[in-house]
Amino acid sequence: MSASNRAHRGTIHLEEAEIIEQAAHPGEQFILRVSAPECARTAVAGSFAHIRCDADIPMRRPISIMRADPVTGQVDFLYKIVGSGLRALSTKKPGDAISIMGPIGNGFSADDSKPRKLMVGGGVGVPPMLFLAAQLASCGTDLSGSLVLMGSEVPFPFNVVKSKLQANGIAADATHALAELETLGIPSRLASLRDYAGVHTGYVTALASGWLNALPSAEREQVEMFACGPEPMLEAVAAVAAEFGVACQLSLEEVMACAVGGCAGCAVPVHEADGIAMRRVCVDGPVFAAESIYPAA
Questions:
Q1: 61 and 85 in contact (C-beta within 8 Å)?
Q2: In sequence order, which ranges of 175-247 are alpha helices (DSSP H)?
Q3: What is the set of domains in the chain, with CATH numbers?
């Protein structure tokens, strides 16, 4: 057994989780809440769970953790139906039990010397950003000078309100924010190629560039970026980070078979000091430094 495999011994739990709530949202999106005390106890932003969607479907599905409460033992997931597995999961009702392995993977690591956090989520990459913002806020981090950006091509499955929190350099059409972040005092803005009220028509990376460009150089040096979403978005985020000289961490999304490092089916090339190495997204990631995945030209 490799050293990296041994490092994860005892950190991944297998639980029969009871479904507490399953809420359907437009665009075949679902927010699933389960009771999984062991997973909730050690989950961190960026980690995920490997979920068996149905007894008749042996292949599990990796889903990012959106919220985890170690006190109540509850864990929340946001997923969008893609394929038969997640469609089967969407039919489950409160009281049903599903098998969950988690938390899996290395999460985001915030640098205390960089107080301004720029968090960017796209599609099903939104949940880790919500988790990260809440995790930082719960530790007493002042996020009033930070920003959470979220993009979606289907309606946002959250309460959206007109923001009262300032975010300089943001496009004028980006006026609305997530209510739960607004309550926490964390500025957020939304983007989409769809025509949604209060949502910027365009990409989240345009909002990120505008915000970074508006910061004085001394404040820009206090920024670190975090992102999760589809590969084209992550590549664009890495380019923005490189342009402005900002440290950036990316959470990758990959199809997985075992999700515990055994099959290496999720391996990706990672640029390291001594060359390119194949690293497994499940246990070596899913979070990597942006420049190790998309090195600057």
A1: yes
A2: 179-183, 204-214, 217-220, 231-244
A3: 3-104 (2.40.30.10)
Place of tokens 């009033």: 144
Question: What pLDDT, in 10s, does the model give residues 125-140?
Answer: 999 999 999 999 999 9
State the DSSP string of 137-148: HHTT---TT-EE
Q: Which two tokens stand for residue 148?
A: 């959470």
Q: Which helix (H) or strand (E) holds 228?
A: strand 223-228
DSSP state of 125: G
pLDDT band of 262, cuts 50, 70, 90: confident
Reported confidence tier of residue 31, pLDDT bands at 50, 70, 90: very high
Q: Which residues contact 88 (CB under 8 A, 6 or more apart)?
A: 53, 54, 56, 57
Rounded distance, CA 259 to CA 111, Å? 27
CA 266 to chain centre: 18
Residue 183 CB-density burial (10 A; 0-12 exposed, 13-18 middle, 19+ buried): exposed
In whole angstroms, how far apart are CA 111 and each of 36, 55, 136, 252?
29, 42, 11, 20
Residue identified by tokens 């980690």 is 47
